[in-house]
Amino acid sequence: MVGYGKSCSNTYFDASLLEEKSASMALAIERALTHAGISAGDIDLVCGTSNGSDDHSRIEIDAIYNTFAAQNPAVPVVNYNACFGFVASAAGLLNLAVITDCIKKQAVPAIPNTVEFFDERVNFVRQSMKLALNHVLLVGATEGGNYYAFVIKG
């Protein structure tokens, strides 16, 4: 791990403030990139960990889109919770295990068990691909409005 960022949204109990929550997650991403000494353009893969609900998916996807749209709009995006289910606190760890294997193999498996994707603005990995993975970003959220992002160097 070469970069870490976190932030907290005090709007956790107000479901109507999705933009503020997304901005808070984007801030965690920016902090991780800054800590790693890189920019959004240097990220080769983004892995989310949202639980699949419309609100949580919207927060995560908007944060990813808003961070990468200008410098790296085609960055591949994955979230493997559709494979093993959302298992609360372990979701980030399970996704970390998968992306660690991706870095080792320099290959990214397609997102499984998904027919329709949530948002066409991001480049979800729909087919397995060989990919040079130098920097991978893992993002997520915890209870209470806390957001985190890790940059992992391959």
Automatic annotation (TrEMBL):
GO terms for molecular function: acyltransferase activity. It comes from the Bacteria. Residues 13-113 form the Beta-ketoacyl synthase C-terminal domain. One of its GO terms (biological process) is small molecule metabolic process. It holds the Pfam family Ketoacyl-synt_C. This is Beta-ketoacyl synthase domain-containing protein.
